[in-house]
Amino acid sequence: MRIHITSVFVDDQEKARRFYTEVLGFVKKHDVPVGTDRWLTVVSPEDPDGTELLLEPSGHPAVQPYRTALVQDGIPAASFAVDDVRAEYERLRGLGVRFTQEPLEMGPITSAVLDDTCGNLIQIVHTES
C-alpha cells in the first residue's frame, strides 16, 4: 500500500494552482471540471507519477473551523520535503512568500513553515540521513 493522493483545502483553486505551480514549483497533473469546482492535482516534477496533491475546494462547513484552528495553533496542513530548507526559504522569500517559522534545526531535521495564501500553513523539511 502507498499514498496515491492527499489533499489540502484551498479558498480559491485557481489562486492555489498558481501558487503551488508557479511559486512552489509543482506541476499540474489533473484539472477536470466537477460542477462549479475542479479535480485539480499537482505533483513533484521529480516524480510526475508519484503522490498527487489535490487542491480541494474548502466549501464544506467543517473546513473553515478546522483550518482556522490549525493556523491559529501554527500547525501545518502538509509537509513537503526539500533538499535544502535554508536555500528554499531564501528562494521563496525572494518571491514574496510569507513564513510563520524561519528555518529551525531540531537535531537531524530542519524545517520552516510558510503561508500558502490559500488558507493553510505548509511546512518544508529536510532530514539528514
From TrEMBL:
The VOC domain, residue ranges: 2-127
Source taxon at top rank: Bacteria
PROSITE patterns per the UniProt record, alphabetical: VOC
InterPro entries membership: Glyas_Bleomycin-R_OHBP_Dase (IPR029068), Glyas_Fos-R_dOase_dom (IPR004360), VOC_core (IPR037523)
Protein name listed in UniProt: VOC domain-containing protein
Organism, scientific name: Streptomyces djakartensis
Origin organism lineage: Bacteria, Bacillati, Actinomycetota, Actinomycetes, Kitasatosporales
